[in-house]
């Protein structure tokens, strides 16, 4: 799982 | 978005508003570490590089602009405002914060998800944010008398990342393959650095006495 799904976080 | 992350973002927003309120209203930055503010401005500058390239939501963009704007304006106030800068205690705020930046940048160059500029800078911002509070905590230990607004600022700033940990736990259980060790470890280290401050902050609140950190 790439960090992409963290990029919606601040 | 889940309640933990929303609460975390609102707590983070409250922390910058408390600090801006203190500096703008009473025109004083007594007890506030410029070094920590400069580190936070760098954290946001390196974390939000995607603000112009990737639109996620209005909320996401607005909050990024608020955090970027507030952190840089706080640095400007303390450095350049003719009244505020007189209350800056540069003889006490002596933490060599570039000694924090260099290891974080080196670590980001070796431990990251992908070796791209944006990803390394984003990872650097995670590591740097974990330790950015250190100059402020050192200054609080030195200045001893912590005014309420500064105490509330540090408390809210520490609490927001603690709420993010609950957000990551929630996402781990609700989203498949949601595993992000780098972010999790940085977030836990960041929150643990506040542990003793939280202890003395709750003690002073419980006993209704002025917050004092042991020397």
TrEMBL record, chain B:
Membrane topology: Multi-pass membrane protein
Coiled coil: none
Keyword Membrane: yes
Cited InterPro entries: ER_ret_rcpt
Any one Gene Ontology BP term: protein retention in ER lumen
Transmembrane region(s): 55-78, 98-115, 121-140, 152-170, 182-202
Pfam families: ER_lumen_recept
GO molecular function: ER retention sequence binding
Superkingdom, taxonomy of origin: Eukaryota
Subcellular location(s) per record: Endoplasmic reticulum membrane
Signal peptide from the UniProt entry: 1-31
Chief location of this protein within or outside the cell: endoplasmic reticulum
Keyword Nucleus: no
One GO CC term on file: endoplasmic reticulum membrane
Keywords: Endoplasmic reticulum, ER-Golgi transport, Membrane, Protein transport, Receptor, Signal, Transmembrane, Transmembrane helix, Transport
Family the entry assigns: Belongs to the ERD2 family.
PANTHER family per the UniProt record, alphabetical: ER LUMEN PROTEIN RETAINING RECEPTOR (PTHR10585)
Protein name listed in UniProt: ER lumen protein-retaining receptor
Species annotation: Lactuca sativa
């Amino acid at each position: 799982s790439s960090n992409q799904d963290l990029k919606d976080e601040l | 978005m889940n309640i933990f992350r929303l609460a975390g973002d609102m707590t983070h927003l409250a922390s910058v508003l408390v600090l801006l309120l203190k500096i703008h209203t009473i025109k004083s930055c007594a007890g506030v570490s410029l070094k920590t503010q400069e580190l936070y401005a760098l954290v946001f500058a390196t974390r939000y590089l995607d603000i112009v390239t990737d639109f996620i939501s209005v909320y996401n963009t607005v909050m990024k602009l608020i955090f970027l704007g507030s952190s840089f304006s706080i640095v400007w106030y303390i450095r350049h405002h003719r009244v505020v800068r007189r209350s800056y205690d540069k003889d006490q705020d002596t933490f060599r914060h570039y000694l924090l930046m260099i290891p974080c940048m080196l670590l980001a160059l070796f431990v990251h998800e992908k070796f791209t500029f944006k990803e390394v800078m984003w990872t650097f911002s995670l590591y740097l944010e974990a330790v950015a509070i250190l100059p402020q905590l050192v200054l609080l230990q030195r200045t001893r008398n912590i005014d309420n607004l500064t105490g509330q600022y540090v408390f809210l700033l520490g609490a927001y990342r603690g709420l993010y940990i609950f957000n990551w736990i929630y996402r781990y259980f609700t989203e498949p393959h949601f595993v992000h060790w780098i972010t999790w470890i940085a977030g836990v280290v960041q929150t643990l650095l506040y542990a003793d401050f939280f202890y003395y902050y709750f003690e002073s609140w419980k006993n209704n006495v002025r917050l004092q950190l042991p020397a």
